[in-house]
Design goal:
The chain is of the alpha+beta class and 123 residues long. The protein has 2 domains: 57 residues; 65 residues, SH3 type barrels (Roll), CATH 2.30.30. It contains 2 helices and 6 strands, in the order H-E-E-E-E-E-E-H. Helix 1 packs antiparallel against helix 2. The mean pLDDT is 78.
């Protein structure tokens, strides 16, 4: 019985870890020569720079050469190594939640069946 509780706790911990990443899509953009990044105003991005630094930026202005963010920083596209955009995914979230419910229902059915089986063995 103790082993079952440990396995159930492990399953719950793994499920919680996956739930942190299951609800989002991450898109990665890299600058190309004479081609600006597909940034959109008011969106939040995680920007990695060639210098090795990174910051979260909410875009307020975009030009041919670069962009400005809500913090008042201006960056040239030539300074940018990559840009990551995280977006909420309704389909991933719904699928994950349904999968978790199915797994928990299966575990519950197994534990109930095992408990009933153990009760009959004791008689």
């Amino acid at each position: 019985m103790q082993l079952r509780k440990l396995r159930l706790r492990q399953l719950i911990a793994i499920t919680m870890a996956f739930s942190l990443s299951a609800c989002t899509n991450t898109r990665i953009y890299r600058p190309a020569v004479n081609k600006p990044l597909p940034l959109q105003l008011s969106n939040s991005y995680l920007v990695y720079f060639v210098s090795g630094k990174h910051e979260t930026s909410v875009i307020t202005a975009i030009t041919e050469l670069g962009f400005s963010d809500k913090a008042g920083h201006s960056h040239l596209f030539s300074e940018v190594d990559e840009v990551k955009e995280k977006a909420f995914s309704f389909l991933k979230t719904t699928g994950f939640a349904a999968g978790v419910l199915v797994v928990l229902a299966a575990i519950g059915a197994y534990l109930v069946g095992k408990t009933i089986e153990d009760a009959f063995e004791k008689e």
